[in-house]
Amino acid sequence: MKEQIQKTFEALFALEDIREVLREALPTGPDPAEEQAIREGVARVRAVLDDLEAGTGSPQVTKIAGSLDIRNREEAYINIQPIQAAGRLTLEARKALIAYGDGYSTCDACRKPFRLDQITKPPIAAFHEDLARFLNMDVVRVVPGARRGFQAVASTLVKPGDPVIVSALAHYTEFLAVEGAGGVVKEVSVSKENLVTPDAVAAKIEDVRRETGRTPALAMIDHVDYQFGNVHDVAGIAKVAHQYDVPFLLNGAYTVGTMPVDGRAIGADFVVGSGHKSMASPAPSGVLAATAEWAPRVFRTTAMVGDLTRRKFGVKEVEMLGCTLMGANLIAMMASFPAVRERTLRWDEEVKKSNHFIDGLLAIEGTKVLSEYPRKHTLTKVDTTGSFDTVAATHKRRGFFLSDELSGRGIAGEFAGATRTWKLNTFGLSWKKIRYLTEAFQEIAAKYELNVRTA
């Protein structure tokens, strides 16, 4: 199989060599030397395809630009890396990257008023409308990652010294967004189950008001946190925030694009999503959605005038720095969107697969799940201190023995060397791969004489 993967990449690269000749040719067509180069290129492609079909042939291309390895993780392995699973590109997105890889490829037909979300060819304006409907919000912008969504909202709402509510499980980018705006983070404690509750949010808001004499300028809470993959009662939290007139930002980095997210039903004033974590898009990419009440503020247009030239750029949005996610990143997000929208309707099946694997992992004696269980999400934190770490204690490779065993079975993405607490994500794996994954972990356990319970 690995020979076929190698030859597939070589065939793609050989086709790109032909494409380069066509790019250098005049619009009237290739000259004789270019025609010869194309014929030679086609012959190379045929030879590579023969090897691909037969599963033979030694590697002819091992580096890109002399130093970059060919990344074949998604072809050669089952990848359970926590932040990569839902960011795997769809077939259509990979095609889009080939066709739209050039820098300003989205701007070929840009016309006045020269703003990204208003471009109609390719249909970027329509995509923004589709995203708004998908999230059941009023206005959406694409942004270079969820963090830029946090930044845009924080810089709009938060003034120096303002308290901002986040959870004790909040991502570091939420902290940075608040700090960049001059605000002060106030963390909500979590329950013994590592859940953020509406009551805890209310208590924290009350504490902040007593301590500072201020109502928080913003509450940012993760729909699903990155540390445990737990699903939090964000609708209840939004309701509490609004009772105190605190605007609520839903961090949907691990939910927008994987499971249904209805911003209006949740009660969110802002919804932030991550394209590269959960929308099958290249990094950096993300979305920021707002209600009609808040959109005029977070998407305000510039009013500044040059003192010498008297230039004005009135349609440009200040927090977006004019245009945001240009080129191949946006086009690939658009290409993936039909599949992303459809896959959210199969979320229950993804959770079933997650629980099937976790149940199989728990069958290995000494293994624990630190996330809520049964699982409600595909991102899970596990504790194998009582199982695989007992092997690592005496193995010459220490904790890396598990990475070696998994890699030998075509599994990647676990934290290399970690055999105590670590995270994984099963999102997007077929049942065939889920069963293979489960059996692989149990086979490794049995090999090292760990007890595996049978059903």
TrEMBL record:
SUPFAM superfamilies: PLP-dependent transferases (SSF53383)
Reactions catalysed: O-phospho-L-seryl-tRNA(Cys) + hydrogen sulfide + H(+) = L-cysteinyl-tRNA(Cys) + phosphate
E.C. number(s) listed in UniProt: 2.5.1.73
Modified residue annotations for N6-(pyridoxal phosphate)lysine: K277
Chain ranges of the Aminotransferase class V domain: 124-382
GO MF entry, a single one: Sep-tRNA:Cys-tRNA synthase activity
Cofactor names: pyridoxal 5'-phosphate
Binding site for pyridoxal 5'-phosphate: A146, R147, N251, S274, G275, H276
Enzyme class name: transferase
Protein keywords: Protein biosynthesis, Pyridoxal phosphate, Transferase
Subunit structure: Homodimer. Interacts with SepRS.
Entry's family note: Belongs to the SepCysS family.
Described purpose of this protein according to its UniProt entry: Converts O-phospho-L-seryl-tRNA(Cys) (Sep-tRNA(Cys)) to L-cysteinyl-tRNA(Cys) (Cys-tRNA(Cys)).
Record-linked HAMAP family: Sep_Cys_tRNA_synth (MF_01675)
Protein name per Swiss-Prot or TrEMBL: O-phospho-L-seryl-tRNA:Cys-tRNA synthase
Source species of the chain: Methanoculleus caldifontis
Primary gene name: pscS
